[in-house]
Amino acid sequence: MKPFVFSRSTYSFLLFVLAPFALIQAQQPGVHGNKFEQLGTMLPPGNTYRSQDGSPGPEYWQQRADYDIDCTLDTENLRLNGEESITYYNQSPNTLRYLWLQLDENQHSAKNNNQYFDPNSIDPVMSAADLRALESAKEVADYGIEILEVKGENDEPLRHFIDATIMRVELPEPLAPGQKFTFKVKWFYNIVDRVKLIETLKVFANYPRGGYEYFPEDGNYLFTITQWYPRMCVYSDFEGWQTNQFTGQAEFALNFGNFLVKMTLPDDYMVGATGECLNYPVVLSSTQLERWEQAQTATEPVEIVTLAEAKALEQKENSTATKTWIYRAENVRDFAWTASRKFVWDAMPHITEAGKRVMCMSYYGKEAYPIYNRYSTKAVAQTLRTYSRYSIPYPYPSAISVEAANGMEYPMICFNPGRAEKDGTYTPQAKHSAISVIIHEVGHNYFPMIINSDERQWTWMDEGLNSFVQYLTEMEFDNNYPSGFGATSTITDYMALPKEYLEPLMTNGENLIDFGSNAYTKTAAGLNILRETIMGRERFDYAYREYCRRWAFKHPTPADFFRSMEDAGGMDLDWFWRGWFYSTDATDISLDSIQWYKVDLETNPRREEHTMTQKVEEPFLDITRRRNRASDMEFTVEQDEELQDFYTNYKPWETVDSVQETTTYLYDQTFTEAEKEERYGGKNYYQLFFSNKGGLVMPVIIEWTFEDGTTEIERIPVQIWRKNEEAFSRVFVKDKVATAIRIDPFKETADIDESNNNWPVREMPSRFQVFKAHKMKEKLNPMQRAKKDGKVIKP
Ligand SMILES: [Zn+2]
After folding, report:
1. Which residues lie at CB < 5 A from ion ligand 1?
2. What is the pLDDT of residues 152-178, one digit of tens each?
3. What is the pLDDT of residues 726-754, one digit of tens each?
4. Can the keyword Signal be found in this entry's annotation (predicted)?
5. How far is the CA of 104 from the centre of ligand 1 (A)?
6. Burial class of residue 730 (count of CB atoms within 10 Å of its CB; 0-12, 13-18, 19+)
7. Where residue 760 sits, what CATH number does that domain have?
């Protein structure tokens, strides 16, 4: 239905004539927001450290910190004493005069308290726990890290300053680029009762990540020692020192480095930790060592400590003798460990694509045995298999899941829930939360332990990306797995909330009202939409892997992720980042109405003659022409007479041509009834009217149901909204008669209101007339007319 266009004015005239059947869209004024504009200055410009394509630049640098830690776990007094030597490598182009460290244990300190509590109030009825929460700072008075010494290499004291969870150490000499500095810190802290604190403190921000759990029935402890030693803050090209306080919510920014850690504790404790144990022959019994050797080639988990042995040990008197476990970990950003007399320990290998052996292991008490013995180590192996395929092959020698009734991740070791009932049965929730959290926390080895974003700044970059691959892993583990992330149905309720309850994903983790829905669920669902609906699996998976490859063991920022996905995916996604990551808009695409047309087979449009006249005015002499003429410019046509013809000095405004006339015979050529029947008789034209009620632009997926019961899916790319972000109509031509139309039938786009997605088709079609073509009246051109008038035309 393209009009025969020969001039602008004729075009609008024809449109006017044809309006009822022409593309309405062409007539609508554009309704532009900026949903399709490039992110531009919203992203930092590329530089030599971070390239515009999202990859690390030619001068990319990052700092490194190596740790040598000696510590003693005092299980009598529930205290951890430690001494560490930190070697800090200044690989930046800047000279440093001070260093910043993180003292996360001060999260619980009364004197160095940093808890930015959320607002609270007194209600007409208060529980004891509610009231305790109002006083939480007092309850934790004895906690926090005590820094005993900060010394240089020659034992000279270093000036330092502590502000809640951060400590500045002044360097005795400026640390030039390329230099390293070794210093020592001596400290201790009282270990918190992790479970009691959780019960006491309702505020999530105060949630303890590590501590002990006491089991009154058997009188044993389970220690999870995390965020325990003073750790270097990150100094980076994009923000200098990251000195945001740790409040318990947004996690950490950490450097890569090597660790040598010696842990001394009673010799009846079993230890699991980041890295590889260097002295198993010393700390394990000969039977345990033999089983450890067996586990290296096992195809099912091998129990290195059995349930019977663990049960027997937890009943024994506590030993007073001690043992020292020595662990080494290379190129990790942190070190955590666990210790208990309650542990069953099992292990089996995962072999990487490169043929490297990774020991998948689990540590758990009898309480978790029914679930963990069956699922934990295999869930660890499943995680490594799937994550390795969607990101990079797992680079570390081990991956450990510890049952500690919580969920928290560290390199090569993580803590997860999953206890059974006393009779050995368990609920489906206990089973699935165990498997999901194990996959999630082991998955954190990738995001952010290896692909090492700044968690304290951008929670979505680790929690969201990780929750997304967790979903892919669960989907691969069991097609019927009840996943909490990934599917768009997990996020629609959140995105439908009033705007005052929502923040964009590009919000600091501390400032979120609903941390989980925002950083975890919305990111995972968004990436799933990108993968399944916008980019397609092949394109998405390639780009996601490329992002992971580029930024493994480095510090990516959001721009590096956005750019890598676009660059390796070969697709402009700025509109998606802008909508899903920078706004609180939701998808709500409404199918407002449908018009069904068929061709009028009987009548043809009546032939009409249309004449248009246009006066030709003498053109205005614009500034460029005036100045060129005034200058000494030599005009080619004036220099070369050969180029001069009838039109060179033709001035229509001075001739009869000053009024130009064009005549069109509208609907000049038409079809016979038989021709029409053959061409158009069976065709149905459906004009669908859509509007954007939620703000987000999204592809439109349409499901057609036809009279004969068949269905068809049609996918309209998101660019349909480019010229009008609020509404569009589009015509679909179908050989079959449609009985119903539904949009987003697979719930791919997180549409928050599906009540406007369905539409039955009207019973009777409207009819429109067709014709073959218009025709222009042929006329003499000015040259022909001059000839006819007897004028001599230059040959
Ligand atoms: Zn997480």
Report:
1. 463
2. 989 999 999 999 999 999 999 999 999
3. 999 999 999 999 999 999 999 999 999 99
4. yes
5. 18
6. middle
7. 2.60.40
